[in-house]
Structure formats: C-alpha cells, structure tokens
Specification:
The structure is a single chain. This protein is mostly beta strands. Helices cover 0% and strands 53% of the residues. It is built from no helices and eleven strands. It has strands at 4-7, 10-12, 18-24, 34-39, 46-51, 57-59, 67-72, 77-82, 91-101, 104-109, 113-117. The strands form two sheets. Strands 2, 4, 5, 6, 9, 10 and 11 form a seven-stranded mixed β-sheet that branches. 29% of the residues are buried.
Length: 119
C-alpha cells in the first residue's frame, strides 16, 4: 500500500505562487502516471495535471501556462508549481498515483491540501 502525503498548501493573494509537494512512501519509479486533482467548494473533483513515468505532461486548459507538474524519483515526490494564482484556483488539491502489477491497476490518493487564493 503506497501512502501519499501532500504539503505546501496555504493562503496566497491573487497573482501569487505556491509549490505543492506529494511525498510517496515507496519509490516513485515503481509508480506509473501521477496526477494532481482539485476540488473547489461546491464543485466536482477535476484533473489539473498529469505526468507519466517517462515525464510527459498534460494540463487542464484552466491552468496551462501557469502550473508546472514534475516528479523527482530521487526524492520520491510529485510537485506542482503554481504561479499567477487566481481566486478560482481555490480548492483542496489531491495527489494521485497508480501502479499496475500482474495486470491489475491500483490507484492511490493523498489526503489533500487546501489552497486558498484571496486578497
């Protein structure tokens, strides 16, 4: 069972930056695609950014050009650099990872970290 723990959330003014991290209890080399999701107040959970095991990235249109996802396999972490933050970025941000073994896919989730963008 892989444990994922997010950190780095907080309160920031519009236009500011935050860096989220997700620490994995096992080597991220053993994990396939890793993702960041978020869920704003009264909204459904949405996919924010994806990074594959070979480093390919995909972003939601709403964050493209502002957010950067990265993974550090040496430190077993997934990161999300968030710049030019907007009030609509306010949400709980969740780290997700999956692993496939013997043809069976298992998804792992962190507990979430709150990001609030407000003046």
């Amino acid at each position: 069972q892989v444990q994922l723990v997010e950190s780095g959330g907080g309160l920031v003014q519009p236009g500011g930056s935050l860096r989220l991290s997700c620490a994995a209890s096992e080597s991220t080399i053993t994990l396939n695609t890793m993702r960041w999701y978020r869920q704003g107040p009264g909204k459904q959970r949405e996919l924010v950014a994806t990074i594959t095991s070979d480093g390919s990235t995909v972003y939601a249109d709403s964050v493209k050009g502002r957010f950067t996802i990265s993974r550090d396999n040496a430190k077993n972490t997934l990161n999300l650099q968030m710049n030019s933050l907007k009030p609509e970025d306010t949400a709980v941000y969740y780290c997700n990872a999956n692993r496939v073994r013997l043809g069976l896919r298992t998804d792992y989730w962190g507990q979430g970290t709150q990001v609030t963008v407000s003046s």
